Amino acid sequence: MCGIVGAAARHNIVPVLLEGLQRLEYRGYDSCGLAVHEAGRLARLRTTQRVADLRAQAEGLQASTGICHTRWATHGAPATHNAHPMISRGELALVHNGIIENHDELRAELQGAGYEFESQTDTEVVAHLVHSLYRGDLFDAVQRAVARLRGAYAIAVLHTAEPEVVVGARAGSPLVLGQGDDGCYVASDALALAGSADRVAYLEEGDVVRIHPAGAQVVDAQRHPVERAWQPLQAYAGATELGPYRHYMQKEIFEQPRAVGDTLDGIESIGAGLFGDQAGVLGRIRRVLILACGTSHYAGSVARHWIEALARVPVDVEVASEYRTRDSVPDPDTLVVGVSQSGETADTLAALRHARSLGMQHQLAVCNVPGSAMMRECALSFATRAGVEIGVASTKAFTTQLVALFLLALTLAKLRGRLDEQQEQQHLQQLRHLPVALQAALATEPQIIAWAETFTRHENALFLGRGMHYPIALEGALKLKEISYIHAEAYPAGELKHGPLALVTDAMPVVVVAPNDALLDKLKSNLQEVRARGGRLYVLTDAGTRIDNTEGVHAIRLPEHYGLLSPVVHVVPLQLLAYHTAVARGTDVDKPRNLAKSVTVE
What's the pLDDT tens digit per position in 266-298? Predict the structure, then answer.
């Protein structure tokens, strides 16, 4: 859930480390630090402030080999003594992402061998373990150390006896290898290496890598030498530039028309080929199981409505972290769909692997990172083209996931003879029109700002929706709580009188997603239930609903109803509401407290 950058080069790498670390700030962190080889010793800097403070501390520091880290606390409080890198006996420095499950027994063993611990972290255990196994070859020591670890990790290690070497390893947490003209690099995310490396290779589960200025060596989990495929490093020009926007989240909200257009680019017809060479299996599956977390789970919940309505295929949507905790009934004819922005979400990866262990081999990844673990592990895949998303609260990654899942629904329908050519072209035309519809939704920003001025004075909010818009209400509530810290929850509007109505007063703003669909009349009855209790309604609606601004009712009307794709459009004003409420409350919009962008621990 945090960031690693390591470098071994023939030039000063301190600016490279700090620039890479700054690019990983979007992942969320509560401390940061770096360690470099300097004149035969390890120089370490740590802070519980931002990377900018670390940069100030590093003024004048020069080195050609080093590692750095942003930490999101798991074991031990967010404090300087728990910040990475961890040092073992002044000779070895180590940074770590993940959680080591057997750290207690290893700690007891190492204490018995005379090692003293200065932190409460599981990471310091790994540092001392590698040091205890060092016999003049850091690459070998790390290989022997990771063989004793249980849990998830990505690590990068230095030793004073090998001043040109960094050793990295990964299992359950991502690590990418990079190479440029004058050095080699490791990082949690290829974005950190843009401008330094010109090509990257994604390390596989269990890999250990040794980097030095002239190149890299990789061994697999069985300690056999292997080659990992190199690919050009994607250009990230403009990804970290704010331009005219105040925050990355605002920029990414407004990039959604472009992101959706890019995701649809080149798609002229619906067919199994959209999902890979082995997608012929889509015509034979009997069920769909969608596994995801957080915002991606809500995308899957919308997709359930689409797939069942269009393809008449039954769909289950599971929270990935819960899927493995019960004794489920496997079906080998199920298509298992993993949905993730990063493709490295630990719970979703673990759920997919669990499903495979039960015999469900037909797996599809919907993801925004083509080289991610999820995309590599699943036989079928669809890469959304949202571009780099830096704000912790997902926006454009969510809407492009919805587009990908709608294409899946259409494909399953076509393969079952439920989508004729005329219907296919109508749906494609509607998809191509989505960027225009999203622009119209973005044009509601001035009205949303007025709503936000009211919301900032409240500590609770209720969101309502029906049918395929209930997951959109859930997503709106999640966005508001994530970045404004207002307690918000969502309910199917029909459940209002089964409990939540007890909370409704004039101090509880109620947000309603109310498109002009078949459920509108029932939803209007739910609005009346709120008004009868003195509640104040904030209604997102569209053409023909006859929901107008009246006493206690604040309505924003989108210019057209968008049918099955309405959820993609209606989520945009909810994103804007969360954003502008957070801005008015003065929170850290892009890096909300306690949250991380890429959740790589279970």
Answer: 899 998 889 988 878 999 999 999 999 999 999
Active-site residue identified among 251, 396, 479, 597: 597
Q: Which amino acid is at 395?
A: T
Token pair for residue 16? 């490279």
Phi, psi at 210, each rounded to 5°: -115, 120
Tokens for 248, please give them. 């990355």
331, with CB counted inside 10 A (0-12, 13-18, 19+), is middle
Q: Catalytic annotation on 522?
A: no
For residue 531, the Cα-to-chain-centroid distance in whole angstroms is 38
Task: Give the 3-state secondary structure of residue 179.
Answer: strand
The full DSSP string for 286-298 is: -EEEEEE-HHHHH
For residue 310, give the nearest of 424, 410, 425 by alpha carbon: 410
- To the query of whether residue 68 is one of the catalytic residues in this protein, the response is no
pLDDT digits (tens, 9 = 90+) for 435-480: 999 999 999 999 999 999 999 999 999 999 999 999 999 999 999 9
Measured CA to CA, the distance from residue 19 to residue 51 in angstroms comes to 9
Closest CA to 143 of 99, 208, 98, 205: 208
Q: Are strands 215-219 and 176-180 parallel, antiparallel or unpaired?
A: unpaired
Q: Is the dihedral of CA 127, 129, 131, 136 positive or negative?
A: negative
Return the pLDDT at 447.
94
- Measure Cα distances from 568 to 18, 83, 473, 572 in Å: 37, 40, 12, 7
Round to whole Å and give the CA distance between 481 and 483.
Answer: 6
pTM of the predicted model as reported, rounded to 2 decimal places = 0.79
Q: Can you tell me the distance from the alpha carbon of 13 to that of 11, in angstroms, rounded to the nearest whole number?
A: 6
Q: Which of 2, 68, 293, 378 is catalytic?
A: 2
Q: Which backbone phi and psi does 200 adopt, to 5 degrees?
A: -135, 160
CB 2 within 8 A of CB 597: no
- Compute the distance between CA of residue 568 and CA of residue 570 in angstroms, rounded to an integer: 6
d(CA 280, CA 229): 27
β-pairing verdict for 315-319 and 287-292: parallel
Looking at 177-247, list the stretches that DSSP marks H as alpha helix, in order from N- to C-terminal side: none
